[in-house]
Design a protein that fits this description.
globular; mainly beta
Length: 129
């Protein structure tokens, strides 16, 4: 698997639909879950695989960092991203020891929690640079 890079700004190398950093994630009932803090993208193509959000932080108290596969999100419009998952369900998701060094086992646990295949989706030919 290609290594992932942590992207904390909407970099021009990201595809338009992956430029969601700073947007808010909403559940299916249109309730705000969290702000998208960063993404994890392929180090060569900048194809986004995961969103990074923080749940439960308040007044400089760090909440739980949650990594979400992009397959569970839908970009609605500028500044709004939605998912069928509820905040409470995301709070129960497996976490990683360190976001910048997610292991293969941690990645598989996260993908399994959301009911996705353990391997990242392959890049189709038109997405490769």
């Amino acid at each position: 698997m290609m290594p992932l890079v942590h992207v904390s700004e909407n970099h021009f190398k990201l595809r338009k639909k992956d430029r969601v950093i700073g947007c808010y994630l909403y559940d299916k009932f249109d309730e705000a879950i969290a702000r998208i803090d960063a993404v994890l993208a392929d180090s060569k193509t900048y194809h986004c695989y995961y969103l990074i959000i923080n749940l439960g932080g308040y007044l400089q108290v760090q909440g739980k960092t949650v990594i979400l596969p992009v397959e569970i999100r839908t970009v609605i419009d500028l500044g709004k991203v939605s998912t069928e998952w509820r905040k409470e369900s995301m709070a129960e998701a497996p976490t990683v020891t360190h976001v910048l060094n997610m292991t293969t086992v941690e990645e598989e646990l996260i993908r399994d929690y959301y009911g996705l295949p353990s391997a990242r989706p392959a890049l189709s030919g038109h997405l490769k640079k």
